[in-house]
Amino acid sequence: MSTDRAEPAPLVLYAGPPEEWDAYAGLIPAACAEAGVPITLVRDAPPEAVDYIVYAPKSDLSDFAPYTNAKAVLSLWAGVEKIVGNESLTQPLTRMSDDGLRLGMIDWVSGHVLRHHLGMDAHILGQDGVWRNDTIPPLARDRRVGVLGLGALGAACAQALARHGFAVSGWSRRAKAVEGVRSAHGDAGLAMVLAQSEILVLLLPLTPDTRHIINAATLAELPKGAIIINPGRGPLIDDDALLAALDAGHIGHATLDVFATEPLPAEHPYWAHPRVTVTPHIASATRPETAAEVIAANILRGERGEPLLYPVDRAAGY
Ligand code: NAP
């Protein structure tokens, strides 16, 4: 009589957005089966029985200590600032990086850069019967765009803008080569990028080092009339300093997708400011179809004892 017993399928706890359970309940097990690692996905289980946790801040889970056998916590979000400092989290943590997030962010950033580059508002808003043909938009190659953060999203957006023809420079923590992009790092690198950014895109993660990186001093380093586009995180910007710079005319416009408080309170001055565009944290989103494949790839890696994709550096905070 054989004593071999099949290993039980890894038990995966879904602690993601409740409203997305229906989508993930089908997609994650299917992607895992396709990857060759059948799993059981549940919304509730004895903590010590859980092998992996699929996590997003929009869940009730905040104490990871009871999950003593969990091999990894797999974030559905790219930004991990809400979990990275959680002291009960001792398991390896990964963040989300998938085609859906990347492609969506390229579209959103490209659209808003082009809006400002072409001065589209002049002809979309306030049509009054007057034929104003005195301003021809410059070519993209004559427009200097800066991108702070050259990670999965920043590098992809910087490259897409460079391919479109913009003169793009970018900034990261460590030295980095991004094809077609003038890359810089460190304090001197930041000053160089700011000084030449007629349009500045923020795609940094929120960490103690990046909080209020856009403040009175750095705003002053931007060319007069510069445009700020922030799909990164709200607290990258000192809001009071930005409002002062907008009111002084030094900053021409701010297109903001993310805020220190979300939803942005109805009484916040950004809503009514004539040179601020508010979008409600929709620049991009984790798409269950593509995110499930990344979750499956990491569970497969975890089961094989291989390094996980997109690990979070807990000390760096992202
Ligand atoms: P990522 O791959 O981790 O890239 C982060 C980039 O920022 C890296 O280039 C990193 O430098 C750089 N960086 C970090 N700290 C820095 C510092 N102190 N100084 C200079 N550069 C620094 O992240 P991602 O996937 O591109 O995502 C970026 C952010 O986008 C997320 O953290 C999230 O906040 C935001 N996001 C927003 C939305 C939305 O819908 N609005 C959607 C998804 C994500 P190194 O290359 O040297 O590591």
Describe what this molecule looks like in 3D:
With 318 residues, the protein is of the alpha/beta class. It has 2 domains: 11-98 and 286-304, Rossmann fold (3-Layer(aba) Sandwich), CATH 3.40.50; 100-278, 3-Layer(aba) Sandwich (Rossmann fold). 31% of the residues lie in helices and 16% in strands. It contains 9 helices and 12 strands. α1 (21-35) crosses α9 and α2 packs across α4. Bound molecules: NADP nicotinamide-adenine-dinucleotide phosphate. NADP nicotinamide-adenine-dinucleotide phosphate is lined by residues 78-79, 97, 101, 149-154, 171-174, 176, 203-207, 209-210, 231-233, 257-258, 281, 283-284, 318.
Unreliable spans: none
Relevant CATH superfamily of the largest domain: NAD(P)-binding Rossmann-like Domain
Structural class: alpha/beta
Structural domain count = 2
E-strand count: 12
- The level-1 CATH class of the largest domain: Alpha Beta
Q: Radius of gyration in whole Å, from Cα?
A: 22 Å
How much helix is in the residues? 25-40%
Number of helices: 9
Strand order of the largest sheet: 8-7-6-9-10-11-12
* CATH T-level topology of the largest domain: Rossmann fold
Strand content: 15-25%
Mean pLDDT: 96
Second-tier CATH architecture of the largest domain: 3-Layer(aba) Sandwich
**Which term fits the overall shape?**
elongated
Task: Give the N-terminus to C-terminus distance in angstroms.
Answer: 52 Å
Order of helices and strands: EHEEEEHHEHEEHEHEHEHEH
Q: How is the main sheet built?
A: 7 strands, parallel
